[in-house]
Write a structure and sequence with these properties.
alpha+beta, 5 helices, 4 strands, globular
Amino acid sequence: MPSGRRIPRGGQLGRNTLNAYAAGLLDGEGCVRWNRTPAIEVTNKHRGILVQMQDKWGGSVRLKDDAVYVWTLCGAKALAYLACVSRYSVIKHPQIVELFKAARSTGRTRDQHIKNLKRLKNVYTH
């Protein structure tokens, strides 16, 4: 095994590793949106990892469909989560940036950032 690389034991992730892993979950299985407030959802069949996210950042985990779970986080908690994971995000990073801009804005400016966020949700990069 290469030296200098730590492998977490027993599926426990350190803070930075958890943040990067959470960003990967969001990129692959998540949704960034604005429903009167900032909101994220991450869907996965592994309830345990979603509960670990819930333990760290709050929100709720519920059964969505047959053996599919969804973790939902809204408002200030969603922004706190996104602040932790945004530097590791690749696919959702532009959406996260627009969500933060919307959260800091009001009126027509906020509406424009929300419109940009919705537009970015349909943009796929290779």
